[in-house]
C-alpha cells in the first residue's frame, strides 16, 4: 500500500504564537499499517485483533472530560496541549520543557527519523519490529539496518551497533517490542545508550510499557542522554482514534523535531489523555485485565503445541507452522481479523489481545482454520 502523506503548513513552536514554515513528510501510523491485515471494511460482527487497539476504550473519567470540552471545540485550546505536556513531565520527574504533546506517538517517531537520519546517517531497528520508522527513513534516503532479535527475543544491541558503524542516525528500540510483545533487558538498553556513536540518538518507543513490569527509560532523559522516549494513549488508555501521545527528551532534541509538523492538537485527545493520566488505579486495573486474558490464551496455545513468543504486552506472535498469510486470510473468512505477517517470521502471525469474549471467538476460529 502507498504511504499516507501528512502535509504541514505551520509548525507549533515553544508557544501557541510561535509559527514557522513546515514540510511535507510521510506519516505511517499503526492504523495505516493495520490495513495490511485485511481489505475493505470488516463486517459488523468482526472480531478486530489486528491493530493492537484496546477494546475497552477510554476510561469513564476521560469520556466525561472530553464530553465537556466538546463545547469548546470551536477553539484551538492550545493551553490543553501544554497542560498535558506539563502533567506528563511532572509525573515522570521531568521539567516541563522536557515533554511535548503530539497527536499520537507516530508523529514524533517520524519527526525523530526525519531530523536525525539521511544519506550516511542510518536507521537501525529490530527484525521483526515496528516498520513505521524505516518507512520514514526511506523518505530521507537513509540506510536501514534490520537486525534480527536474539534467540530470547531481545533487541540485539551489540549487533545493532556493529551494523550501524560510525554513521548511525537513529537506533530504534520498541520496548516491549511490536510485534513480539517481548522485552529487552534494561542492561542492554543501557549498553546501547552508553556505546552509540556520537551524534546519534536512541529512540525508545514505550507505547506498550504500561502492560509490563519494565522500568521506563525516562531516567535517561533526566540524565540528559541522547535519548527520546515516546508514549502513546492509543494502547492501555484506549484512545487510538482520539490521537494523543508525547515525546520526552532534552529541550534541544525536541527543538530539532519541531519543524517537521504542525502543533495543532485535537482538544478532545489532549484533555482525555491528561485526565487518563490523573485517574488513579487505571493502569494497574487494565494491565491486570489484559494479563489474565493474555496468559489464558498463551496457555491455550501451548497446550495445543503452538509456540508463542513470551509476550508481556497486549499482543503476541504465534508460529502457525504454515504461511502466516494463509492463516490470516482464513481467519478473516471467519470474521476474525488478526495482525499482519512480518517477512522475517513468515510462519508467525500477530494477534492482539481482545476481550475475553473476543478471544473465545478467536480460539474457536483458530481451531477450525488449523484443523
Question: In a nutshell, what does this entry contain?
Answer:
By secondary structure, the protein is of the alpha/beta class.
Q: In angstroms, what separates the terminal alpha carbons?
A: 32 Å
Largest sheet, strands/sense/barrel:
7 strands, mixed
What are the secondary-structure elements, in order, as H or E? EEEEHEHHEHEHEHEHEHEEHHHEHEEH
Q: Please write the CATH class name of the largest domain.
A: Alpha Beta
| Strand order in the largest sheet | 6-12-11-10-9-7-8
Low-confidence stretches: 1-25
CATH architecture assignment of the largest domain: 3-Layer(aba) Sandwich
Oligomer: single chain
Tally of separate helices: 13
Total number of domains: 2
Write down the overall mean pLDDT: 91
Q: Name the beta content range.
A: 15-25%
Cα radius of gyration in angstroms: 20 Å
Residues in helices, as a percent range = 25-40%
> How many β-strand runs?
15
User: CATH-wise, what's the superfamily of the largest domain?
Assistant: Type I PLP-dependent aspartate aminotransferase-like (Major domain)
What sort of overall outline do the alpha carbons produce when their principal axes are compared?
globular
